[in-house]
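A further point concerns the way the authors explain their paired sequence and structure data. The central task, working out the structure tokens from the amino acid sequence alone, is never made concrete. I therefore recommend that a typical entry be quoted early in the introduction. An entry of this sort, consisting of the sequence and the corresponding backbone structure tokens, reads as follows:
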Amino acid sequence: MKYLHEFRDGPKAQALAEQIRRMVTRRWAIMEVCGGQTHSIIRHGIDQILPPEIELIHGPGCPVCVTPVETIDKALAIASQPGVIFCSFGDMLRVPGSREDLFAVKSRGADVRVVYSPLDAVKLAQREPQRQVVFFAIGFETTAPANAMAAKLARQLGLKNFSLLVSHVLVPPAIEAILNSPHNRVQAFLAAGHVCSVMGYWQYPPLAQRYRVPIVVTGFEPLDLLEGIRRAVAQLESGRAEVENAYARVVTYHGNRAAQAVIEEVFTTTDRQWRGIGLIPQSGWRLRPEYADLDAELRFGTAEVQAEESPLCLSGQVLQGIIKPHECPAFGKECTPRTPLGATMVSAEGACAAYYHYGRHRQMPVSG
């Protein structure tokens, strides 16, 4: 219980942890599918205050981490072209492609800029009509509404120099891919509250019923996470497999229908490669044909770029919950935040970064 004193609501957190301890009768493996939840779990030591029968598995919940290598290489190729201003959120700049990252091309003179919203990139395109402005549109369902609005605004303004490099991925198909994997050990899921605030959780009951797996919509604070774990354990112990909403102050069953409408107008589902995992059918969004003129892959001819992951990087196994970060032989050796082999060590939501920054590489023996 050594970390409970750090929680904002320590006594409540301790009470929840004790409830979980009293109800557990066997071993259970629960996966969180959100990088923000992973960092909260590791930062506050939630996995260490739970009874040893409960294993928390870190899933593919970091959108930066699952952006495929070939998409990073496409970004590098576009950013390197003359007359291009390449805009991105800051955590993408150090994500390694097959040979280098966006910081490297920026250091050679490419105009790579950090923005805080895709609408900033639209405004930049207005101010710089002689240059091509490209926004790197990645993320789960959470970031899609703002990216869709940027596309709509660019269309309304008649901008011919704005485009999107799109690499959106979707949570429900990833959960199903994990459950279908021959390596799957997951017995319950904590669903990401911010994703469900946009999309609702109406997509999850069929998964819970088909695979007999509890799914609990959960927030990000220690109390949120412990309550989600408590509900998941209660279901597992009683043999139930239902969807529960433990984040009702933010999430509703149907979600934000206005946000879903703008997403539906601009994007359509597509097969998507996930870094370290491979192809998951219908697991992403791409621009609809009506918005194809805003597709940076088509505009810059990068659709056929292919790339390979570093053979030393086991981030795919980390993202699937097969191994913990410290079990990768390269963790803390060849792969550190200064010399990352994969995105899971770079991203602010990456599991490897969480283990490294919060000292797990000092607490646990490194494999190899």
Observations:
- The two ends are 30 Å apart (CA to CA).
- Residues 154 and 214 are 42 Å apart (CA to CA).
- Residues 364-368 have pLDDT under 50 and may be disordered.
